[in-house]
Amino acid sequence: MRSLWRQRQLVVLSLSIVLIILFSYVPLWGWLIAFQNYKPSTKISFFQQQWVGMKNFVDLFNDPRFTRALRNTLAIGALKIVFSYLFTLLLAVLLNEIRVTWFKRTVQTISYLPHFVSWVVAANLFFVTFSPEGGIVNVLFVGLGLAKSPISFMGEPSLFWVMVALSEVWKNSGYGAIVYLAAMTAIDPALYESADIDGASRVRKILAITLPSIAPTIKILLVLSIGRLLSVGFEQVYLLKTPSTTQVGTTLEIFIYEFAMKFSMYSMGSSMSIFNSLISIILIVGCNFFAKFLDGEGIM
Amino acid sequence: MTTKLSSNGQGRQKLGRLSARTENAIFDTVNTLVMVFVCVVTLYPFLNTVAVSLNDSVDAVRGGIYLWPRVLSLKSYETILIKTSAIPHAAMISALRAAVGTGISVPLSMMLAFVMTRRDYVLRGFITKLVLLTMYVSGGLIPTFLTYRAYGLTNNFLVYVLPTAISPFNVLVMRSFIDGIPFELTESAKIDGASEYRILFTIIFPLSMPVIATISLFVAVNQWNQWFDTMLYCSSNKGLSTLQYELKKVLDTANSMVSSDASEALMDQNSSGGRVTTQTIRAAMTVVSVVPIACIYPFLQRFFVKGMTLGAVKG
Q1: Is the pLDDT of residue A165 over 60?
Q2: Contact call for B46 and A280, based on CB within 8 A
Q3: With bands split at pLDDT 50, 70 and 90, how would you rate the model's confidence at B304?
Q4: Chain B within 8 Å of A110 (Cβ-Cβ)?
Q5: Which of A107, A197, A209, B134 is found 20 to 30 A from A70 (Cα to Cα)?
Q6: Which tens digits make up the pLDDT trace of B125-151?
Q7: Nearest-CB residue to B139 (from A27, A118, A208)
Q8: Is B68 part of any domain?
């Protein structure tokens, strides 16, 4: 206690922790309403609400809409990981191979741009680009004879998951490549020089030097992204979704917003939030253990 | 692994050195083409939007505008920027939340990051854990909404800037930067009798400019791009609407027109009147909301690349 008083200036500087408590920790009390039949009202206080135990959870798991939302979330999450992971790595490797500095800089600067625009803008651009009425992709597809008539890319339920994954690639690959490129700068140039003496080609050097050297980064980022499997990004899917893709586009987060929030089914929504958090924590902790197991060093 | 590599290498040697050289030339050509393709795919949607926004709205409905407006017209910009006050006002709110949000977030995060680097600080472990845990635990949409409503934050400008003020990611990036500043500087200042505030503001702050620039960019861009909190907390107050939210509403009308069959049939009967305006106005609004970002981020590139890699290595 005395040392705390001695460090009172530091305590004053840490006061903004109050904001974290107010805005991140206090809302956790709301998890309790998942075990209630919560009715928003000014007359009944929180403690007078009817307690129902696990009923909300049982109802939830028996709800086909919930099962479908879970399926959509897993599908979109998995596709996003596979697509964005591979494309980001590929982009980083190819960027690293550019020898002309100004060209490399220009490509990088351009590839960052989509990361900084909002999902509203990105979704807008996607709808326009893939529009069946004069969107450039359809113009090219029909022009090149790849399709007989314009395809409604954004309205076709069977394409929706892939389109979401593609939008992720378009928006965040360039930015995500930064981490890999940073890891590549740490590779000892002597390795490449000796490979040159041995007459290795560029592809050979990528496969035998570049990729193995950044393997730890690749591994850690993969583990991290698996940990975020369920957090598929509310904004992205919500904005890309249209009435015709509701069936395949309603993820858990969107389900919470559209059903629970709009119809004031607060208890149900909270129980879903708990479910979501629990699975995420299990995934993250599990992946962290797995990472430790892989190279003796965790990521948290 | 090694045997596999060497045997493979011998196989290649038979083809001779020249083949490696031609292979490299082919690789370079293909790589350049792929990179050009990446740039085109990234930029085309933006350039196309600019072209559409500058085109006459009635003419635009004929389609076929790619990189250059066919009939030049500034009508769409006039409509959204001069004829109505809603969009300029929403843009002002967006700019305001970017400015105020950055002004609140950056100093507070900096203070927190500073105390988290002080190994002699008794509460260091506790505070670090409290900050880090928010990355993994959140109340979820509904509990958070109910709590913020109980705070009286609905239809309140503060809901934009206060809850997001301290982001654990930003604090971590700042912390690892401050960790790189030699502790001897702090120590010698303390011996000379400087207060903690003085150390923070006259030593740590000036030395942390790169990370402060990075985080300011992140916070400002993030604030400018937000729309969900507007929809959730402030949708009944027009005066607090943001530019992104207005754009989102335009996107909604456009989508409901295009996608549902019933409304499509309606559209055909009603001629294309509605869509004419939507298409170019939507483009103009997109341009207005992208231009500030496109102007700022290239200049801060070296900062955020540094900040990003710092965060990635340590975080």
Answers
A1: yes
A2: no
A3: confident
A4: yes
A5: B134
A6: 899 999 988 887 788 888 899 899 989
A7: A27
A8: no
What are all long-range contacts of B242-246, with beta carbons under 8 Å and residues at least 24 apart? B242/B90, B242/B93, B242/B94, B242/B97, B242/B160, B243/B87, B243/B90, B243/B91, B243/B93, B243/B94, B243/B285, B243/B288, B243/B289, B244/A118, B244/A120, B244/A121, B244/B94, B244/B289, B245/B90, B246/B86, B246/B87, B246/B90, B246/B285
B19 and B163 fall within a common domain: no
Same domain, B193 and B267: yes
Judged by CB atoms closer than 8 Å, whether chains meet at B258 and A99 is answered as: no
A39 or B149, higher pLDDT: B149
pLDDT range class, residue B250, cuts 50, 70, 90: confident
Q: Where are the domains of chain A?
A: 55-295
Q: Using the beta-carbon criterion (under 8 Å), do A244 and B258 form an inter-chain contact?
A: no
Of A44-53, A182-191, A255-264, B43-52, the poorest mean pLDDT is in A44-53
CA distance B179 to chain A (A): 16
For A113, the closest of B35, B42, B137 (CB atoms) is: B42
- Shortest CB distance from B260 goes to which of A118, A121, A243? A243
Residues B250, B285 contacting (CB under 8 angstroms) = yes
Instruction: Indicate whether B85 and B165 sit together in one domain.
Output: yes
Could you tell me the residue range of the domain that residue B46 belongs to?
A: 2-53
Provide the shortest C-alpha distance from residue A144 to chain B (in Å): 16
Average pLDDT over chain B reads 82
- Partner-chain contact A23 B121, CB within 8 Å: no
B142, B241, B285, best to mutate vs chain A, most A CBs in 10 Å: B142
* B127 and B183 fall within a common domain: yes
Distance from CA of residue A269 to its chain's centroid? 21
B90 pLDDT above the threshold of 90: yes
pLDDT digits (tens, 9 = 90+) for A137-164: 988 998 888 888 888 888 889 999 999 9
Cβ atoms of B20 and A201 within 8 Å: the answer is yes
| CA–CA distance, B128 with A89 (Å, rounded to integer) | 32
pLDDT of residue A297: 55
- The tokens for B144 are 């958070």
Same domain assignment for residues B192 and B223: yes
Q: What percent of chain B has pLDDT over 90?
A: 39
Q: Which CATH class is domain A55-295?
A: mainly alpha
Q: Is the confidence at residue B312, as pLDDT, over 90?
A: no
